[in-house]
Amino acid sequence: MWERLLQWDRDTFIYLNSLGIEEYDWFWSLTTHITTWIPLFILFFLLLLLKYPRKEAFSMILMTVLLLGFVLGLMEMTKSLIARLRPNNNEEISTFIRILSRPNDFSFFSGHASSSFAITTLIVLFLRKKFRWAFVFFLWPLLFSLSRIYVGVHYPLDLIVGALVGLLMAIFFYKIYNRFIVPYLALDRP
User: Fold this and answer.
1) Any idea where the domains of the chain sit in the sequence?
2) Which uninterrupted H or E stretch holds 21?
3) pLDDT in tens, 70-99
4) Are 123 and 134 within 8 A, CB to CB?
5) In the chain, at which residue ranges do the beta strands (DSSP E only) sit?
6) CA 51, CA 37: separation in Å to the nearest integer?
7) The whole model's pTM is what?
């Protein structure tokens, strides 16, 4: 069963990666870089600062930064333990896939997927009552994650597990925030 899942993962990666069109390489290469998204992070923090009292907004920003650090630490530990080669470093397939990026570390699970889904989920949980359209922010982690297949550095399971880790950790941190931080700030909201 495990071998069949890995075979599906590899075959699906090869199929999706082969759909790439050279004219769009610039877009996906730009999309995959974290610096491209800095304006979005600034927007997240500005929205928190505009919609919440300063002390509460700063505690939300701090919780988001702590979540990011936790998820990235968990990802690094998991990558070291699993030690799965990235597609671009896998000699069996690297000669016939599209490769636009060449990181040398391991693949499982995706830091791009886990961190982007974690940040977005926590921000959406914080802002969902202030902005009904906050769920639109999930376009970022979807594009950010898919770019990793396009540039040839992650298998679909790397992204799926990364997204799930990010979602679950964000929900966990949101619950911690409401259980411990909200009472400390003397806020009366659920």
Assistant:
1) 2-13+22-184
2) none
3) 999 999 999 999 989 899 888 888 788 888
4) yes
5) none
6) 21
7) 0.92
